[in-house]
Amino acid sequence: MKAVIQREFGDVNVLSYEDIDIPKIGENEVLIKAAYTSVNYADIKKRVGNKGKGKFPLILGLDVAGTVEKAPTNSNLSKGDRVIAFPTSGSYAEYVVANELLVFKIPEHLELEQAATLPTVSILSYILLHDIGQVKPTDTIVIHSAAGGVGSTLVQLAKLLGVQKIIGTVGNLEKESYVKKLGVDVVCTYETFTEEVLKQTNNQGANVIFDSVAGEVTSRSLGCLAFYGTLVQFGNSSGKAGTFKTSDVHSSCRNIKGFSLGTTRKHNPEQLAPVAEKVLGLFASNKISIPIAHIFNLEDVAQAHKLIESRNYHGKVLIKI
């Protein structure tokens, strides 16, 4: 089968398009013939070495959409089932293996191409909004990186929930019209959002802030988080850790919650099936959608990574296998 292999950290030139053997499945595992995989910023971080040590050779990629080739005996999955999944060892390949707990059937009326946009960003967004942030319709919320995959999904889910005021941040105001179409009420840059949030809330601050950027954005977020508010921290795309002091939270009754989809896939995969069913249903009924920025062929994965690194796109970047 064809796959993209990485043997060292570095720029896009470390990605090699090769022939390798089709992987074997073990107990409780599913072999999936891949149709599409999405490219996530986590792939870039892993490629360059920002995600810790790499066990080479490796295959990048967090999620896949495709069809079941082989399933365990007595599984609710059968050959030919259309599924999304979180593979065990990457998804930039024609065939991938996934734990059956991390394989979810696609509803009949949802196209594979659209299903491929959703596994990582939509399941993560749903958990962040409903379980971690516990957002209520009366809340004012801030969504950092609102034009990104998770950000744009969070906006749509918050709108579906009927959230009173959604404030979104972007790195470039050229993305303002895009995020406003999604449902953002007020658009700010990372430099101006603290003052704007206070202005929009009568100096009370936002009830929930979703932060995937970290670094200085974390401290600026604490500068406009309301009493009893929640800062949800789920990434550090800035490449820097966000910091806070205990005095930032205890006297104001605020809290900081962290969440990682990767950790949950590893340690609590059972949590994801009901969420996957809900978001797949939302996509199948056209209640939310994620625009596709570009679809690359597997051999052109380097171009996909360059587009992600440019941040000059809206929606999801897919690879057609």
TrEMBL record:
This is Zinc-binding dehydrogenase. Signal peptide: none annotated. Residues 10-319 form the Enoyl reductase (ER) domain. One of its GO terms (molecular function) is quinone reductase (NADPH) activity. The keyword Oxidoreductase applies. One of its GO terms (cellular component) is cytosol. The keyword NADP applies. Gene3D superfamilies: Medium-chain alcohol dehydrogenases, catalytic domain (3.90.180.10), NAD(P)-binding Rossmann-like Domain (3.40.50.720). It comes from the Bacteria. It holds the Pfam family ADH_N. Keywords: NADP, Oxidoreductase.
